[in-house]
């Protein structure tokens, strides 16, 4: 018979196991025989093909054409040095391609390492003891414990089940969860049996125990894995923007190069000279390092976030974070410490301190002790609890005031879910069966017909109900989470669907969960950054408002509070209108209602980040622009649906991540400005060569030395620069904002670029005229004076780029504020630039490779005022830009106005 057709005991025997699990020796032997419980990654494109693609994308094709033309020119007119240019271009293609390939491999390794911070774990019975092991360590015969929110790590057969419901959609395609039980099945196929849990499915509700019978590639999921491509990488808006920008620059380079080649032919410029011009223009304008630098910025930002307890699961999310305008956050554990303690209780129709003895209320404490799903251990005879902090608080109160015997095996259970908002368990006792229930008062009180008082139980009249509701309000206003406790002795043969009726109300527990210490500062930072924060909680509205006031989320007298019941009645249009309220909270909201809130915010044009930890949070996490799962309390399902995971479950870590996301976009702009400046400085001398019939000031091979040599490390340094201190004092940038906006283009092309080009041409003519050259005089490529002049032009660009890299560290702050330190990569880049230009200028090898010649000290002295002048003009521009920005982006810092501050159109000029 098949394993699903056997009884639970027969199923255990069929895999040579027992209800206490495997012994360690057997598990080690089986791991060696069956291998780790994992499905091998899907086959990827061969590395050689991926490497080849790095040499055939648009930029590479353009440079291949340039190299081919250079070799053609050398064949057509030997002796002009064009072969050397062709070789240099090929070297650039190879270096750029190899770097990009290495960078892609680094991304894969980095993301794999970051994902390793969240190993999939499972509770396993080994030698009769519950252990938490990595899912890869499972072997056939292991007995595992499963609860709501867990992913099923292997194919297994249920041997115990309490209210178990399974989402099998990942394997079977069924959209609705199905129940699971441990009874033998008459189904022919295991996949159809209710006692079979397949790897890749998830537990939606309840709990159970199961014995593993297939692992890794032998599971049903493993057999279909090679047919399924799970997840497809999608470029972020920033990647698409840079690809768009790169194509425009590439086409512009080809167009300008072809135009001037045609113009040169018309005016009678010799072919090789004309071709040098065209190749020089193409080489000058193609941003070879743009895409690798983008990837590097995202990777390093993700690594920095990981060090600050934020795990990025999808690399493009780093950039998307910078656009977030709304954060929808849970309360418990995210805004609060999730370290709960019962502070007040309501017994005998009176509120009292939770540490006050309460004789005659053993039933209240018994409900608190038994109605829970905690894991209990007693090392050294001391009770240790693991599980829901709320349940731990209730059990600790009961153990402190009225110790109860340890609970035996329960007979039945109704698990807690967001619709019922209560949990019930049934335990046998000497007189039959007792049902214990806890949950939200509005779901428990209507089921109650009597109340426990010190003198005994009596009917629950309207006066008592009113007193209970008043007590709830009083505790909620004090910021306490209110839980109602009730019980019932079940009559014999009571139908299961009637068990949660005619309950006896036992009392209320008011549980304190203090706000996290630095969450108020994080909320204030969001307000200053123009980011709206919306609390979504399952707690009572009074509790939600009280906590919101404590952390500065609510400051007004009448915040808009929408309950889950009201949310169900609201039409989508009404919900969107309600979201216009200056201060809004959602209370008593079910996890699956988050989806509606997220969709409404998206419809209003917000960029939404939402937190979640449960199975029912997964739809909202997927729907949001940024889904944020909890690393400590979050379920496996929530983590897999999310874009990022908070390893510390802390709201302040979200704010940190948003700041990093904003910095990424800003850094790409810094890098782009820096690159475009030297591109202009390389282009203008080529145009002067074509239009004014002067010697070519900068050879193509020398331009390549700047692009891929001297400027490479400093450009990468800008790509990993930390964000400006004022980054979180500006509104979020609009998603439609272009990377190369008007401000960046003007600064790079018509301000710094033209200045740098003027300095390069000035020193070029300074050397020529000082050596006796006159306009119209022909100079050969090997003429010492000409080589010194081009060397001076090259050196001017390198020197001013050293100045420029410090100017580009901020578009607004003074270079005297940003200073020279704080970015070791930039300092190493400057050292590399100095070393390379000295090698190029003053060594025989550098002179031979790049057609340079040593220049006298007077040339450097000539350039110093230009370097100082570049600082002066940029500092002047920054001064006026800061004044303009202060007037243009001023918005009130009060709670109401900041929440709805519009996205910034130009936050980083």
UniProtKB/TrEMBL annotation:
Keywords: ATP-binding, Cell membrane, Membrane, Nucleotide-binding, Translocase, Transmembrane, Transmembrane helix
A GO CC term attached to the entry: plasma membrane
Residues spanning the membrane: 55-76, 82-102, 249-269, 275-301, 748-769, 789-812, 824-843, 855-873
Coiled-coil annotated residue ranges, if any: none
Pfam families per record: Cation_ATPase, Cation_ATPase_C, Cation_ATPase_N, E1-E2_ATPase
Domain (Cation-transporting P-type ATPase N-terminal) ranges: 2-75
Membrane topology per record: Multi-pass membrane protein
Entry's Gene Ontology molecular function annotations: ATP binding; ATP hydrolysis activity; ATPase-coupled monoatomic cation transmembrane transporter activity; P-type ion transporter activity
Compartment(s): Cell membrane
Family (UniProt): Belongs to the cation transport ATPase (P-type) (TC 3.A.3) family. Type IIA subfamily.
Protein name per UniProt: Cation-transporting P-type ATPase
The species this protein was found in: Zoogloea oleivorans
């Amino acid at each position: 018979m098949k394993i699903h057709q056997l009884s639970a005991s027969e199923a255990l025997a069929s895999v040579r196991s027992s209800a206490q699990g495997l012994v360690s020796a057997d598990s080690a032997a089986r791991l060696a025989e069956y291998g780790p419980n994992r499905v091998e990654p899907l086959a990827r494109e061969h590395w050689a093909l991926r490497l080849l693609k790095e040499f055939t994308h648009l930029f590479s094709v353009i440079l291949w054409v340039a190299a081919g033309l250079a070799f053609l020119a050398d064949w057509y007119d030997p002796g002009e040095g064009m072969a050397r240019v062709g070789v240099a271009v090929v070297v650039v293609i190879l270096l750029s391609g190899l770097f990009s390939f290495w960078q892609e491999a680094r991304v894969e390794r980095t993301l794999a390492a970051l994902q390793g911070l969240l190993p999939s774990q499972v509770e396993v019975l080994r030698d009769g003891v519950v252990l938490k092991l990595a899912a890869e360590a499972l072997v056939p015969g292991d007995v595992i414990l499963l609860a709501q929110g867990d992913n099923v790590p292997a194919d297994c057969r249920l041997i115990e089940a309490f209210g178990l419901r399974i989402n099998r959609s990942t394997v079977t395609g069924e959209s609705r969860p199905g129940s699971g039980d441990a009874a033998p099945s008459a189904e022919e196929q295991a996949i159809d049996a209710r006692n079979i849990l397949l790897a890749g499915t998830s537990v939606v509700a309840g709990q159970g125990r199961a014995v593993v019978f297939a692992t890794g590639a032998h599971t049903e999921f493993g057999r279909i894995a090679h047919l399924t491509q799970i997840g497809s990488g999608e470029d972020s808006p920033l990647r698409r923007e840079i690809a768009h920008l790169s194509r425009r620059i590439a086409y512009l380079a080809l167009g300008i190069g072809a135009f001037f080649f045609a113009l040169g032919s018309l005016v009678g410029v010799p072919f090789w000279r004309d071709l040098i011009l065209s190749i020089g223009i193409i080489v000058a304008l193609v941003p070879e390092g743009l895409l690798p630098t983008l990837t590097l910025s995202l990777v390093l930002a993700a690594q920095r976030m990981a060090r600050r307890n934020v795990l990025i699961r999808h690399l493009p999310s780093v950039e998307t974070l910078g656009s977030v305008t709304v954060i929808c956050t849970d309360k418990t554990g995210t805004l609060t410490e999730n370290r709960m303690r019962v502070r007040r209780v309501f017994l005998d129709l009176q509120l009292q301190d939770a540490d006050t003895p309460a004789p005659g209320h053993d039933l209240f404490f018994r409900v608190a002790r038994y109605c829970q799903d905690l894991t209990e251990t007693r090392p050294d005879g001391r009770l240790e609890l693991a599980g829901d902090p709320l349940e731990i608080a209730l059990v600790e109160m009961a153990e402190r005031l009225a110790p109860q015997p340890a609970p035996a095996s329960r007979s039945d259970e109704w698990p807690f879910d967001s619709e019922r908002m209560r949990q019930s368990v049934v335990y046998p006792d000497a007189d039959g069966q007792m049902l214990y229930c806890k949950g939200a008062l509005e779901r428990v009180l209507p089921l109650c017909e009597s109340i426990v008082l010190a003198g005994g139980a009596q009917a629950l009249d309207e006066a008592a109900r009113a007193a209970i509701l008043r007590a709830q309000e009083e505790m909620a206003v004090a910021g306490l989470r209110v839980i109602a406790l009730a019980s019932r002795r079940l009559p014999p043969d009571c139908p299961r669907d009637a068990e949660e009726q005619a309950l006896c109300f036992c009392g209320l527990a008011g549980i304190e969960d203090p706000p996290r210490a630095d969450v108020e500062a994080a909320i204030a930072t969001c307000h200053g950054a123009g980011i709206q924060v919306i609390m979504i909680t399952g707690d009572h509205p009074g509790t939600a408002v009280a906590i919101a006031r404590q952390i500065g989320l609510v400051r007004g007298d009448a915040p808009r509070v929408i309950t889950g019941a009201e949310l169900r009645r609201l039409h989508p249009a009404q919900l969107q209108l309600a979201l216009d309220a200056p201060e809004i909270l959602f209370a008593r909201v079910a996890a699956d209602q988050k989806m509606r809130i997220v969709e409404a915010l998206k419809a209003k044009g917000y960029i939404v980040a939402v937190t979640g930890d449960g199975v029912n949070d997964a739809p909202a996490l997927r729907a949001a622009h940024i889904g944020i799962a909890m690393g400590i309390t979050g379920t496996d399902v929530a983590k897999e649906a999310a874009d990022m995971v908070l390893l510390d479950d802390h709201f302040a870590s979200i704010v940190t991540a948003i700041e990093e996301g904003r910095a990424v976009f800003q850094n790409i702009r810094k890098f782009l400005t820096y690159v475009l400046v030297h591109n202009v400085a390389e282009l203008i001398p080529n145009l002067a060569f074509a239009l004014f019939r002067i010697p070519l000031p900068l050879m193509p091979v020398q331009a390549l030395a700047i692009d891929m040599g001297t400027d490479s490390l400093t450009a990468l340094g800008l790509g990993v620069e930390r964000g400006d201190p004022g980054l979180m004092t500006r509104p979020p940038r609009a998603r439609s904002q272009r990377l190369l906006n008007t401000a960046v283009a003007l600064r790079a092309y018509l301000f710094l670029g033209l200045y740098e080009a003027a300095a390069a041409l000035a020193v070029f003519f300074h050397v020529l005229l000082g050596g006796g050259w006159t306009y119209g005089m022909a100079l050969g490529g090997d003429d010492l004076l000409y080589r010194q002049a081009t060397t001076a032009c090259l050196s001017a660009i390198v020197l001013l780029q050293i100045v420029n890299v410090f100017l580009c560290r901020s578009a607004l702050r003074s270079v005297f504020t940003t200073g020279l330190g704080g970015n070791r990569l930039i300092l190493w880049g400057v050292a590399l630039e100095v070393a390379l230009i000295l090698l190029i200028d003053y060594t025989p090898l550098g002179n031979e490779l790049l057609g340079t010649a040593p220049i006298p000290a007077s040339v450097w002295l000539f350039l110093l005022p230009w370097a100082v002048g570049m600082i002066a003009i940029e500092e002047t521009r920054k001064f006026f830009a800061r004044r303009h920005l202060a007037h243009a982006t001023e918005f009130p810092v009060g709670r109401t106005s900041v929440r709805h501050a519009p996205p910034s159109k130009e936050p980083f000029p």
